[in-house]
Protein backbone atom coordinates (compact mmCIF):
# COMPACT_ATOMS: atom_id res chain seq x y z
CA UNK A 1 0.00 0.00 0.00
CA UNK A 2 0.95 3.63 -0.35
CA UNK A 3 0.47 6.54 2.03
CA UNK A 4 -1.49 9.46 0.62
CA UNK A 5 -1.69 13.10 1.74
CA UNK A 6 -4.17 15.55 0.21
CA UNK A 7 -3.73 19.32 0.15
CA UNK A 8 -5.11 22.37 -1.62
CA UNK A 9 -8.59 22.58 -0.15
CA UNK A 10 -10.09 25.78 1.13
CA UNK A 11 -12.90 28.30 0.86
CA UNK A 12 -13.76 29.69 -2.56
CA UNK A 13 -16.65 31.61 -4.07
CA UNK A 14 -18.96 30.01 -6.60
CA UNK A 15 -17.41 30.13 -10.05
CA UNK A 16 -13.90 30.00 -8.65
CA UNK A 17 -11.18 27.37 -8.95
CA UNK A 18 -9.03 25.19 -6.73
CA UNK A 19 -6.37 22.60 -7.41
CA UNK A 20 -6.11 19.66 -5.07
CA UNK A 21 -2.95 17.61 -4.76
CA UNK A 22 -2.50 14.05 -3.57
CA UNK A 23 1.10 13.28 -2.66
CA UNK A 24 2.08 9.66 -2.27
CA UNK A 25 4.94 7.84 -0.66
CA UNK A 26 6.34 4.66 -2.09
CA UNK A 27 8.42 3.82 -5.12
CA UNK A 28 5.60 1.87 -6.78
CA UNK A 29 3.10 4.74 -6.89
CA UNK A 30 3.43 4.97 -10.67
CA UNK A 31 1.85 1.51 -10.93
CA UNK A 32 -1.31 2.49 -9.02
CA UNK A 33 -4.58 3.73 -10.40
CA UNK A 34 -5.77 6.71 -8.35
CA UNK A 35 -9.20 8.20 -7.76
CA UNK A 36 -10.76 11.20 -6.06
CA UNK A 37 -13.91 10.82 -3.99
CA UNK A 38 -15.86 13.34 -1.98
CA UNK A 39 -18.23 13.26 0.93
CA UNK A 40 -20.65 16.01 1.84
CA UNK A 41 -22.24 16.20 5.31
CA UNK A 42 -24.98 13.62 5.68
CA UNK A 43 -24.23 12.03 2.31
CA UNK A 44 -22.41 8.94 1.15
CA UNK A 45 -18.90 9.17 -0.25
CA UNK A 46 -19.13 9.50 -4.02
CA UNK A 47 -16.79 9.03 -6.95
CA UNK A 48 -15.42 12.17 -8.59
CA UNK A 49 -12.64 11.18 -10.99
CA UNK A 50 -10.02 8.52 -11.61
CA UNK A 51 -6.82 8.14 -13.57
CA UNK A 52 -5.01 5.03 -14.71
CA UNK A 53 -1.44 4.39 -13.62
CA UNK A 54 -0.12 5.54 -17.02
CA UNK A 55 -2.04 8.79 -16.89
CA UNK A 56 -3.43 8.10 -20.35
CA UNK A 57 -6.99 7.20 -19.34
CA UNK A 58 -9.22 9.25 -17.06
CA UNK A 59 -12.80 8.99 -15.86
CA UNK A 60 -15.12 11.66 -14.47
CA UNK A 61 -18.44 11.61 -12.73
CA UNK A 62 -21.21 13.22 -14.76
CA UNK A 63 -21.61 15.92 -12.14
CA UNK A 64 -18.09 17.26 -12.73
CA UNK A 65 -17.57 16.65 -16.45
CA UNK A 66 -16.28 19.73 -18.19
CA UNK A 67 -15.35 21.37 -14.87
CA UNK A 68 -12.87 19.05 -13.13
CA UNK A 69 -9.69 17.55 -14.58
CA UNK A 70 -7.60 14.81 -13.03
CA UNK A 71 -3.94 14.45 -13.90
CA UNK A 72 -0.78 12.95 -12.47
CA UNK A 73 2.96 13.46 -12.40
CA UNK A 74 4.55 10.11 -11.60
CA UNK A 75 7.99 11.69 -11.32
CA UNK A 76 6.62 13.69 -8.39
CA UNK A 77 4.42 10.91 -7.00
CA UNK A 78 1.48 13.31 -7.16
CA UNK A 79 -2.04 13.30 -8.55
CA UNK A 80 -3.96 16.52 -9.08
CA UNK A 81 -7.60 17.51 -9.32
CA UNK A 82 -8.12 20.84 -11.05
CA UNK A 83 -11.58 22.12 -10.17
CA UNK A 84 -13.05 25.00 -12.17
CA UNK A 85 -16.46 26.65 -12.17
CA UNK A 86 -17.05 25.46 -8.62
CA UNK A 87 -20.59 25.31 -7.33
CA UNK A 88 -21.92 25.24 -3.74
CA UNK A 89 -22.93 21.63 -4.42
CA UNK A 90 -19.21 20.77 -4.71
CA UNK A 91 -18.73 21.50 -1.01
CA UNK A 92 -17.37 18.34 0.60
CA UNK A 93 -14.32 16.64 2.04
CA UNK A 94 -12.27 15.40 -0.88
CA UNK A 95 -10.28 12.19 -0.57
CA UNK A 96 -7.76 10.57 -2.84
CA UNK A 97 -7.53 6.81 -2.97
CA UNK A 98 -5.17 4.37 -4.66
CA UNK A 99 -5.09 0.76 -5.71
CA UNK A 100 -8.51 0.27 -7.22
CA UNK A 101 -9.84 0.10 -10.74
CA UNK A 102 -13.50 1.03 -10.49
CA UNK A 103 -15.78 3.81 -9.30
CA UNK A 104 -16.55 2.01 -6.06
CA UNK A 105 -14.92 3.28 -2.88
CA UNK A 106 -14.74 -0.29 -1.61
CA UNK A 107 -12.29 -1.16 -4.37
CA UNK A 108 -9.55 1.13 -3.01
CA UNK A 109 -7.35 -0.06 -0.13
CA UNK A 110 -5.32 3.13 0.40
CA UNK A 111 -6.83 6.48 1.43
CA UNK A 112 -5.67 9.92 2.42
CA UNK A 113 -7.06 11.89 5.34
CA UNK A 114 -9.10 14.24 3.17
CA UNK A 115 -9.12 17.96 2.49
CA UNK A 116 -12.10 20.28 2.97
CA UNK A 117 -13.48 22.22 0.01
CA UNK A 118 -16.13 24.84 0.75
CA UNK A 119 -17.82 26.79 -2.02
CA UNK A 120 -19.83 29.83 -0.99
CA UNK A 121 -22.73 31.17 -3.00
Q: What would your notes on this structure say?
A:
The mean pLDDT is 95. Helix content is 0%, strand content 49%. The chain is mainly β and 121 residues long. Strands 2, 4, 5, 6, 9, 10 and 11 form a seven-stranded mixed β-sheet that branches.
Q: Can you summarize this structure?
A:
The protein is mainly β and 121 residues long.
Structural features:
globular; four-stranded antiparallel β-sheet; seven-stranded mixed β-sheet; 121 residues; mainly beta
Give a topology summary.
Blueprint: E1 3-7, E2 10-13, E3 18-25, E4 34-39, E5 46-51, E6 58-60, E7 68-73, E8 78-83, E9 92-98, E10 110-111, E11 115-120
Parallel strand pairs: 2-11
Antiparallel strand pairs: 1-3, 3-8, 4-5, 4-9, 5-6, 7-8, 9-10, 9-11
Oligomer: single chain
Q: Please bin the fraction of helical residues.
A: under 10%
User: In this structure, how is the largest beta sheet organized?
Assistant: 7 strands, mixed
Radius of gyration from the alpha-carbon trace, in angstroms: 13 Å
Q: What does the average pLDDT come to?
A: 95
Amino acid sequence: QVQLVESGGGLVQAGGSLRLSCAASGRTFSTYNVAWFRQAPGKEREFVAAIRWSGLITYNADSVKGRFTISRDNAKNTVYLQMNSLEPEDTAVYYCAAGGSSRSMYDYPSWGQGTQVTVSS
